[in-house]
Amino acid sequence: VTEVNAAVLERGVVTLREELMPGVWLLRLHSPQIARAAEPGQFVHIQCAGGSDPLLRRPFSFCNVNVDAGTYDLLFNVVGDGTAILAAAEAGQAFEALGPLGRAFRFPASGTLMTVGGGLGIAPFPFVARRAFERGLQVLWVNGAYTAHQLFPRALPDRSDVHLCTDDGSIGHHGFVSDITDVLIDGVDMVHACGPMPMLVALARQLSVREAAGQTGPPCDVSLEAPMGCALGTCLGCVVPASDGGYARVCIEGAVMNWRQVDWARVSAAGELVHHRMRVERLPADATVGALV
Amino acid sequence: MADESALDLSVALRQDLVLRTPLLAASGTFGFGFEMEAIGGHAGYGAIVSKGTSRERRVGNEPPRIAETPAGMLNAIGLQNPGVGVVASDYAPKWQAWDLPVIVNVVGESVDDYLTVVRTLEEAPAIAGYELNISCPNVGAAGLMFGVDARLANELTAAVRRATSKPLIVKLTPNVTDIVSIALAIEDAGADALSAVNTYVGMTLDLETGRPILANEVGGLSGPAIRPLALHAVHAVAGAVKVPVIASGGVMSGDDAVEFLLAGAVAVQVGTLNFLRPDAGAVVLAGIEAYMRRHGVGSLRELGAQVRA
């Protein structure tokens, strides 16, 4: 028996659809009830098709929320039938959304929050950063991608300390997000992370190593992704290995979980599949985008 | 013109188990009812069938556990559940506060497993009946599923029948050559009702790796993709047995439910639709009511009489 969020069904009307870079879209939906209730790290479950194909809803974390305007933004790349429908949506078109769902990020009482986004794992952090500033926190913004044009340009918040990296070295540090976090993690008061599983595994390892050495690492919340069915806790489809030996539901126990709740060893064991998924998410090498900053 | 007079939507699965609506939340799509209660999802239902409950806790299969397919989905959850002890001591007392009957779906790998689960639940409050999931491999019969063998299905049903006087439903698997002969064998063993059908075995591959998407490789197909197949099975079984048949297979609307009622089902399970919307029961029930008003049918008994006429 677990607590469930007070989600509602509400039609979200498209007010903006923009291709930020090839294959990556920002969709703004007018959906005031959900926008008002949304917390950073929570998600909506969107019905993309009018009929039975594709059958299941698609989960997206809130990329940004404008309570006054009654809108929220979704950031996604086209990976299948559902996202293709959303990417082709016209202004005024409506999608039924269920939300807000899942657990939100915790915030530290004061000090510095490090947000760690890998690839489109950057999605929840514009909303996180805004709420962090409202709380008077400093934001240490870490963002990595395969190559420069895949970094999400509009996500860079004003008052943050920005650290970028790319796998191909085209901008920022030539290497992984985890290279940066390993250096900076000891100086922050909390970590929020979202991105590919190998990135989260690396981050968890850094925290574990510190603990083993008798140091106290900062609290760390990770936002997880999994193929999702119901998002209501009943289908048990979206699970990740949990540290209690069983499985935790991403939709209910997540999508944001304390890093300690996840059994990272079992997550790593499933790594081959994860790496395949990462390849699929990479954009074409000839993709271009405007100025980054 | 709309007829606003009250419709009689009640159905009897047994004399002492009358549901206020013909809709049951299908096992595995509604948990143990708590998550859906919190979001108002009980509306429209006449009963809930719980997640499959086993003798011991089962952690379930490795992910990926679900995969979307055309107008359907495959699942291989692996019967994740906390075990009958938790269900009997923690969940059942909470069900007492509900005006919605809860039927517990029972899984096992031996006759003894099923009997242990049922006997434990006999001591618990608020259990309206049992639905046996016989699509599990029988470890004693070299992995042969109870549900694919008329003799095994008969023996299992008879054994559970002796252990309880509560309503006993057996859920048929469609993955057999002759579902009617198995239905008759189960009816002969004393089942009060049959539900038809469980999921169809299927698989789907990842074209990049050439490997199955599901970690379990194969899974059970559900959703509208299977509805015509399920309708065929329901029609065949309902025409052969005397006990009530509870249809199950890809119901997405009231019209879909009516189609199963017209094919001879007494009640209908709603499954995958619960994954698509938290108001699935209410949506399907409203559609059934609309159909009845459109056709001047005042009760489901009347609708059933039309079928047989």
Task: Explain what this protein looks like in three dimensions.
The complex is a heterodimer of chains A (293) and B (309). Helices cover 22% and strands 30% of the residues of chain A. In chain A, the strands form 3 sheets. A 7-stranded antiparallel sheet of chain A has the order 4-3-7-1-2-6-5. A 7-stranded mixed sheet of chain A has the order 11-10-9-8-12-13-16, sandwiched between helices. Mean pLDDT of chain A is 88; it is low at 272-293. Chain A has 293 residues and is α/β, with parallel strands linked by helices. Chain A has helices at 32-37, 81-87, 125-134, 177-184, 197-212, 264-269, 271-281, and strands at 8-21, 24-30, 43-46, 58-61, 64-66, 71-77, 94-101, 112-118, 138-145, 160-166, 173-174, 190-194, 220-223, 239-241, 247-249, 256-258. Chain A is globular. Chain B is 33% helix and 19% strand. Chain B contains 10 helices and 16 strands. Chain B has helices at residues 34-38, 84-95, 111-122, 150-163, 179-188, 227-238, 254-262, 273-276, 280-294, 300-308; strands at residues 11-14, 17-19, 23-25, 47-49, 66-69, 72-75, 102-106, 129-133, 168-172, 193-196, 200-202, 205-206, 211-212, 219-222, 245-248, 267-270. The two termini of chain B are 26 Å apart. Classes of the chains: A alpha/beta (293), B alpha/beta (309).
Largest sheet, spatial ordering of strands of chain A: 4-3-7-1-2-6-5
Number-wise, the strands of chain A total 16
Radius of gyration of chain A: 18 Å
Cα Rg of chain B: 18 Å
User: What coarse outline of chain B follows from CA principal-axis ratios?
Assistant: globular
- Number of helical elements of chain B: 10
